[in-house]
Amino acid sequence: MPSVCVLDGKQHIRTFLVEALEELGLLTTECRDAQELDARLAQQHIDLVVLGLSAGGVEASHVLTCLAAQSFEGQVLALGPAGSPVVAAIRQLGHELGLVMRPTLATPFGAESLRASVAGLLPADGAPSAPVDVAEALKSGWLELWYQHKVDARTLISRGAEALIRMRHPSWGVVPPAYFIPEDGDPNFRGLSEFVIGKAIDDWRYFLGHSGPVDLSINLPASFLEDPEAIDRLCLQMPNHPAFSGLIIEINGTDIVRRLDLLVDVAKQVRFHNIAVSIDDIGTDWPSLMGLNDFPFTEIKVDRKFVSGCADDSLKRSVCRRIIDLANSYGARTVAEGVETRADLIAVHEMGFDLAQGFLFGKPVAPRKFARSSLSRPLAMLD
Fold first, then answer.
1. Cα separations (Å) of 108 from 55, 82, 179?
2. Which of 35, 52, 103, 301 has the CB geometry, 3.0–4.6 Å to 8, for a possible disulfide?
3. Could you tell me if 285 and 257 are in contact, meaning their C-beta atoms sit under 8 angstroms apart?
4. Per-residue pLDDT tens digits for 117-127
5. Which of 121, 152, 170 delimits the end of a domain?
6. Residue 362, domain extent
7. Is 96 domain-assigned?
8. Which regions of the chain are under pLDDT 50?
9. In this predicted structure, what is the pLDDT of residue 381?
């Protein structure tokens, strides 16, 4: 995976660029000036230097001189206003020094423009050729949680977030969970589940200090909750803070149907410790939840395959409405997963879903970026 160094004198610009490049799956580092870059090049191979011009043309010229002195064989991507004389001078100096200068990325720019500027560095398949050992990932500290908004389907205000696990591998960059999540029953699944619980609580405290409390949901396997000791440890980890409104545990709907009696008991037990259980990815097996005397589950999330494209598919809308009626009969809220178009959002709103979740409101992002996102304005109005 190519390595990118973001160089700019302003911290907030470096942070923005690093996060945007990491979302593309690239490995990143950052420097604030030519001196710092000189030391970094002596320690680490870098394929691309993204050069901001907030410090002016003189500092940028020092950076290019440093790269030439190091016989830098990578490429340089300069950022600056279109038609700027400073940008033109930087490009000309780079060529004179024998550096490979990529076409300038004109500011301001969007995510697609940035992707296009680094497209040549993005591999066709950045994922590893074989699954990554999750035990190694846990030991090496490669795992982290990213967060995606759960949005009120009526007001479009964020009502919390789902934590989704990611791996930041030193060679492959950001790796999706399909390449490292073990099979249910694997001994490493317990360690992974305990990591998710602990990291989510740590991130909740981080959000509390930076943007205010956030209602968080995490995903756990049903098998984890079969162990009474694991449940006891889970309950003990809940923050004793007045701003903590609870933790939602999302469990796959098929697993809940298979272990219904057990998980009903678990949900009834943990709710007194500020923990709620959500039924995740429910679909055609929804009739198995009918007629229950006890329904301690706080929400039902409809599988994305019945939400995506529902605006143009009456059969999908029929399944969604039946699940909504089921949830309403138990007093549980409903979440539409996989909302990616405005047409589907309108359909979700008209059918009466309580919450919506999907790429229409943004992809999962790292905690720092999530903390900076607005939690009070309608997300559809955000850039």
1. 17, 9, 35
2. 52
3. yes
4. 888 777 555 55
5. 121
6. 134-381
7. yes
8. 375-376, 381-383
9. 41
